[in-house]
């Protein structure tokens, strides 16, 4: 979410500074926070995530809404959320105990640079951010989590501390998402097509609020719109325009639900020529008008 939105003050920023209130947290300042007690955190309202968070559910359960989708996190589950996602905690059981690893955006980018086809992997995880683990798998993850906590503390004077911690976090990530990582690595398509797909997704994530056309992204990537659309469809099963429109529609939903911005302001924020054009786009993507969506009412056919 852009910081300049005047009526988005009801959305809190969730970055590593949020953890400073915790009495028990293992920190590498500006990089990572590891904690297993959230009693001191005020989790009411909506949060704009400015980093990546991995949650292992050791006990209990919770209902968590991420970008309009609700997930029920239960004991033995693993969940991950990414920068720019809007998070809303709906319900927490009394015995809920999460094991959490929160990384800054800088550290996330550093970690991603170490992983083959990382952007494709991130997209796959975003589509399936929650996994339930077998008991033995989860117990191993708990051991890895505890080991990470210990290493953060005992390496405070080690000149290679960050590298040590980064490698441990990567190891835990591989343990959590080994199936998706394997699937990503065998993804079909040549290296050039993979690179084009990754670059396209990166550009769309960064610029979809202002740039809506396939031609824009094709020009940025020095290919024709037809070739770009063909490659994106081959690599993902969805066309380039569908990717762009889904990013825009998701932003529109989040802004309608999580802020007090009126429809005209949201239309302007998402760079539509006028509110009528935005309304038609939103109705095509969701089957509802922006006003009906905000009110949570189904429209008559």
**Helical proportion, percent range:** 40-55%
In what order do the strands lie side by side in the largest sheet? 2-3-10-5-8-11
Largest sheet: 6 strands, antiparallel
Q: What is the mean pLDDT?
A: 87
Q: How many beta-strand elements? A: 11
Number of domains: 2
Q: In the CATH hierarchy, what is the architecture of the largest domain at level 2?
A: Sandwich
CATH class of the largest domain: Mainly Beta
From the 3D structure, determine the CATH topology of the largest domain. Answer: Jelly Rolls
Radius of gyration: 20 Å
* Principal-axis shape: globular
Q: How widely separated are the two ends?
A: 33 Å
State the low-pLDDT regions, or none.
1-9
Alpha-beta content class = alpha+beta
| Strand/helix succession | EEEEEEEEEEHHEHHHHHHHHHH
CATH superfamily of the largest domain: Regulatory protein AraC
Count every helix, treating DSSP H or I runs of 4 or more residues as helices. 12
Measured by DSSP, the beta-strand proportion falls in: 15-25%
Characterization of this structure:
- The protein is of the alpha+beta class and 301 residues long.
- It has 2 domains: 11-185, Jelly Rolls, CATH 2.60.120.280; 191-295, Homeodomain-like (Arc Repressor Mutant, subunit A, Orthogonal Bundle).
- It has helices at residues 105-112, 118-127, 135-154, 161-176, 178-185, 191-207, 214-220, 225-236, 240-258, 263-269, 275-286, 290-295, and strands at 11-14, 26-28, 32-35, 46-49, 51-59, 61-66, 69-74, 77-81, 86-92, 97-104, 130-132.
- The protein has a 6-stranded antiparallel β-sheet. Strands 1-4-9-6-7 form a 5-stranded mixed β-sheet, with no helix packed on it.
- The two termini are 33 Å apart.
- 29% of the residues are buried.
